[in-house]
Amino acid sequence: MNDLIRRYGVTITALMCLLVAFWLVMLVIVPNITLFEQSFRPYLPVVDVGGPKDVYSLGNYAKVFDGSIERSIFGYTYIIPVHVMTFGLTIWYSIVVTVACFALAYPLAFFMAKIANPKSLPTLLLLLFIPLWVSEVLRAFAWWIILAFKGPLNALLLALGTIDKPVRWIVDYDGVVIGLTYTYVLFMLFPIYNAIQSLDTNQIEAADDLGAPWWKIHWRIVLPHAKPGIASGCVMVFMLSAGSLLVPSILGSTTSQWFTQTIDQWFKDALDWNTASAYAFILLLLCTVFVSIALKVFNVKLSDIAK
Amino acid sequence: MSAGIDLENVCCDFGSFRAVDNANVSIEPGEFFSFLGPSGCGKTTILRMISGFIEPTQGAIKIGGRDMRGQRPNQRPTALIFQNLALFPLMPIWENISFGLEVRGVDKKTRRKKAEELLELVDLAGAADKMVSQLSGGQKQRVAIARALAVEPSVMLLDEPLSALDLKLRQHMRAELRTIQKRTGVTFIYITHDQGEALAMSDRVGVMSQGRIQQIAGPRDIYNAPINGFVAGFVGENNIFDGSIGAVADGIAAFDTPYGPLRARVLDKPQGQKLRLYVRPEHTISAAKKGTENSIPVTVSEVSFEGAFISVMTHSADGKVLTAEIRNDGSATVPDIGAKLFASFDAARAALLPDANVKG
Amino acid sequence: MHKLRITLARLYMGLFLAFMLAPLVVMSGAAFNDSRLPSIVPWKGFTTHWFEAMINDGRMMTAFGNTLIVALAVAILAVIVGTASAILINSISGRVRTVLYSMMISTILIPGVVIGISTMILWTRMGGLLFEPGQKLWPFIPGLHLSVLGQVSYIAAMVMLLVLARLQSFDAGLEEAALDLGASHAQVLRRILLPYLYPAIGAGGAVAFFQSIENYNVTQFTRGGMDTLTVYVFSMVRSGVTPAINALAFLLIMVTLVLALIYEINRRRLARIESAREAEARRATALEEAI
To answer: How far apart are the C-alpha atoms of B351 and C8, rounded to whole Å?
Structure first.
C-alpha cells in the first residue's frame, strides 16, 4: 500500500482501493451472503414477508430429498431422491467431460509447446481462439445441427460406410457430454500449454538420450512438470461444465437433466427464488468442495490458476 | 544554476540496520563529487536520500541552502541518472528528453527545439525521432544525460552509470561526462565502486564503508595520503605490516615488526588505535643489496607482465607476500624467479594507518 | 523427436483444428441452405433470403442491440475495475495479497447461475428495504443493468489477470525517473504506466466484450423481461428455429474472422518493426565497440 502511495499519491491510490472494494464487496461478497441468507427463508406471498411465518429454516434444502424414484445399477435396485440423482449425474458427467478434455488437450498442448515451429505458434493460437469468440449458444446450436438424426455427421458416416443406419447422437447424456467437451476443451488446452512451455526441452532430450521410451518421458518428466497447468485446466473445465446451463438445455434429451436446469426450473417455473437459492448454494458448496479436494490432491494452490 | 549540497549528520536506518551513519559533507556548487565504496557501503542510499526517494532518519539534507525535508522527488531541483538508465521505451528520443519539460507544461515546439539542442550537446544530432530500442549502450547513456539536463537541475545525481559498458567505452564516456559537466557547470554527484573512475573524474572523492564516510579529499590525496587502512586498500594495492609503534620524530615513527624495525610516516597523534604499516607496490623496490632501513630479505616467487608495469611477487622467509612494481620502460632490470633480493621502501612513502572508521 | 511422431502430431493438430472449426463451417453453411430447418443435409439450394429474414426479425435486432449495449458497458466497467485491481495486487504482498487474489480468481469459478440469482436477490431486496412493495425504482428492479453488474463480477477478474501479466514485466524504475523529472502522480500514471499497459488493457477490453456477448447464465436470471442475443437464440432453439439464426451466426463468425485477420496482420507488422529496430541497435553497438 505504501508502495502505491509513493508511486501514485494518496488520491489515486484511494480511488483504486475504492474500485476494488466496490467489485469485491458489492459484486461478490454481499450477493453471495444474501443468497446464503435467502436460501433459509421460506417462499411466502409478499404480504407474509417479514411476518411471523418468515422464519429461518432448512426447509428449502430439505426439498432436495423430495420425490424419490427407483433406479437400478448392475442389477441392484435402489431408491434415490430425484434431485440427488440429478446432482450425482451432473457431477459424474462433468468428470467425464473433464477427462475427455484432458485426453484431447494434452497431446495438442505438448505438440504446441515442444514440437511446433515457434514462428507459426501465434497464428495457431489465433486460429484456436476463434471458436472461443463465437458465442457459446451458437456453438452448442451448431452441434445440435451436426448431431441431428438427419444431420451432417450421420450423412458423413453413412457415406463413408462406417455405419449402415443413422445413429441417434442426442440421446441420454451423450449430446451434452459432446457439447460440453467441445465448448470447454480450450480451457484445458491453454493452461497445460503454458505449463509445458516452461519445461526445459533439454530435459526431454536428456531422457530420450538416456533411452527412455516416449510414454515414460511423459509419465515421469512432462506430466509432473505440467501438474499445475493440468490442475488448473481440470478445475476450470469441471466448474464450467457443472455450472453450464446452455449446453445441457440445447443438447439435452428427454432422459437428461442437469442440476442447473433444476435450479432454473425453481427460479423461472415455480418462481420460488428461495429454493432456487438453496439449490444454487448447494451447487456452489459442493463444487467448492470438489475443487478444494482436487487442489489438495494435485498439491496446487488456488493462486497458481491463471490464464 | 548549480547548487551546493550539505549533508548534516545524516543517518538512514532500515529497521535496526543503519545504512548510513552520520554522514557529513559539504559539496560545492559546480563540483564533480564522487561517493566511492564497495557494494552495501551506503552510497546508493545517500543518493536516494538526496534525490528524495528515501527520507533520512536523522539529520538534514540541504540543497542550495534549503532544507529538503518533506520534499518529494518531483519537487527537488535534482535530476537522477539511474543505473539501468530507465529511458521510456514507448516514446521517441526527443520525447524522452523533453519529458521533464512536458510535465511542466512547456509547449510542443519549444520542447522539440530544446531536445534537439541537447542532442547536439551530447553528440547525438539527428537521433530525435528514433526509439530507444534502436540505440547502442553508449548512445542510451547520452540520451539519459540529455534528459536530465533538460530540466536544468541544480544537481545531477549519477548512479553508477557506466557499470554496464565495456572497458574502452567506459573510458571514452568518462571523458565525455567530465566535459559535459564542465560545459554546463552543474554540480555532479557520482557514485561508483570503481576507484579508477572516481579518481579520474572527480574534483573530490568521498570514500565510504559500511555506512560511514571514511575520507573526503581530492583524488591525489585520497591515493597518496589515505587516512586509514580501508581507504588505502580500496583505491590501490598495498603491502601491509603489523607491528607496534615506537618513538615518533618529525612525523616519522619507528614501527616494530617481526621483520625488524621499520620506519614510516604517521598522521597526527596516534590515539591508541591499532596501526599498520602501508606501502604501495610502486614505491617498493626489489633491490639487490640490503638498504639502510626498511629492507626485508625476500625470494622472488612470480613475475607477471601487466602491460604498463611489471608486478614482482616475492615472499619473505616466513611466507609473507610482498609485491613490488617495476615500470615497463626498461629503467630497471626484471629479476628472475628464485632470485634472492631485498624488498625496500622509503620511510616517507610508507604510512602508519588505523583500520577503517566503523560504526561505533 | 522422431519423424513419424512429428507427422502424427501434425496430423492430430490438423484434426483438432478441424474439430474446432467444423461447427462454425456447418453453422455458416446452414445460413445459405434453402431449407426450412437449419441444416446442411439435405442441401436444397443456395439462397440468401435468410439474411433478409434476420434483418426483418425485429425482436432479434432488438436483442442484438441490447447485447451490444450490455457488452460495451461491461467492457468499460470490467477494464476500469480489472486494471485498478491488477495495479493494487501487484503492489501488495503476503497474506493479504494471497487472500485478495484468491477471492478475485474465485469469481471466474463461481457458476453463473449462482452469480445471476444472487445479484437478482440482492438488488430486489435492497429495493424492498428502501421502497414500498410495488413501487420499485431503477436500479432495484430486474433488468439489463443487473446483467451488467453480474457479468462484471467475474469478467473483471479476467481483465485483471491479463493486465497483471503485463504489469509484472514493467520496470518501476521508469516511474521513479518520471517523478524525478518533476512529473505529478497523475502524469506518471497517464504517461508512463497506462501506455505500457495499453496492449493488455485493449486485450482485456476485447475479452470482456466478447465474454459478455456470449454470457447466458448470469443474463438469464437478471434480465427481467429484456432480451439479449443468447437468451433470444436459446428461446428460439427451444420453440422453433429458422436458419435466420444461422445467418446471424455467419455474420458473427465473419466479423470474428475479420477482426482476427486484422489483429494478425498488425501483429506481424509490429514484429517486423521491432526486429528492424533491434538490428539497428546491434549495428550501433558494434560501431561503438570499434572505437
So the answer is: 79
Kind of pairing, strands B340-344 and B351-354? unpaired
Residues B331 and B309: their CA atoms lie apart, in Å, by 11
Cross-chain Cβ contact C216/A8 below 8 Å: no
- Give the chain C residue whose CA is nearest to the CA of A154: C41
- Residue C289 to residue B139, Cβ atoms within 8 A: no
- Strand partners of residue A80: A69
Binary contact (B134, C281; C-beta < 8 A): yes
- CA atoms within a 13 Å half-sphere pointing along the CA-CB vector of C39: 19
Residue (of B349, B360, B356) closest to B233 by Cα position? B356
Q: Report the alpha-carbon distance of residue C187 to residue C179 in Å, rounded.
A: 9
pTM of the model: 0.78
- Subunits that touch chain A (at least 3 Cβ pairs < 8 angstroms)? C
Q: Between vectors from CA B192 to CA B189 and to CA B196, what angle results, nearest 5°?
A: 110
Length of chain C (residues):
291
What residues pair up with A78 in beta bridges, in sequence order? A71
The closest CB to that of B79, out of C171, C173, C181, belongs to: C181
**Chain A residues inside the 8 Å CB shell of C106:** 302
Task: Select from A1, A16, A302 the Cβ nearest to the Cβ of C102.
Answer: A302
Q: Which three cell numbers stand for residue A13?
A: 491510490
- C177–B74 C-beta distance less than 8 A: no
Q: What is the DSSP string of B94-161?
A: HHHHTHHHHTTT--HHHHHHHHHHHHHHTT-TT-TT-BGGGS-HHHHHHHHHHHHHHT--SEEEEEST
Q: Which subunits count as partners of chain C given 3+ CB pairs below 8 Å? A: A, B
Give A15's contacts in chain C (Cβ within 8 Å): 84
A252: left (phi over 0), alpha (psi -120 to 50) or beta: beta
Rg (CA), chain C: 25
Are residues C181 and B147, on separate chains, in Cβ contact within 8 Å?
yes
pLDDT in tens, chain B (360 residues): 788 999 999 999 988 888 999 999 999 999 999 999 998 888 999 999 999 888 999 999 999 888 988 888 888 899 998 888 888 988 899 999 999 888 888 899 999 999 999 999 888 888 899 999 999 888 998 899 999 999 889 999 999 988 878 888 888 888 888 988 998 899 999 999 999 899 999 999 999 999 999 999 999 999 988 988 899 999 988 999 888 888 888 888 888 888 888 888 887 766 677 888 899 998 888 888 887 888 888 889 999 998 888 999 988 888 889 899 888 888 878 888 888 888 888 888 888 888 877 754
Helices and strands, counts by H and E, chain B? 9, 21
**A29: phi then psi, degrees, rounded to nearest 5:** -70, -55
Q: Are A123 and A129 in contact (CB under 8 A)?
A: no
Instruction: With residue A276 as reference, give the H or E element that holds it.
Output: helix A273-298
C-alpha cell at C173: 524504475
For residue C184, give the chain B residue with the closest CA: B74
Phi, psi of C248 (to 5 degrees): -60, -45
**A273-298 and A223-242 helices, crossing angle to 10°:** 170
Task: Name the DSSP class of A26.
Answer: I
Q: Which residue in B216, B202, B185 sits closest to B4, CA to CA?
A: B185
Q: How many CB pairs under 8 A join A and C?
A: 262
CB atoms within 10 A of CB A299: 10
**Residue whose entry in the numeric block shows the C-alpha cell 494478425:** C264
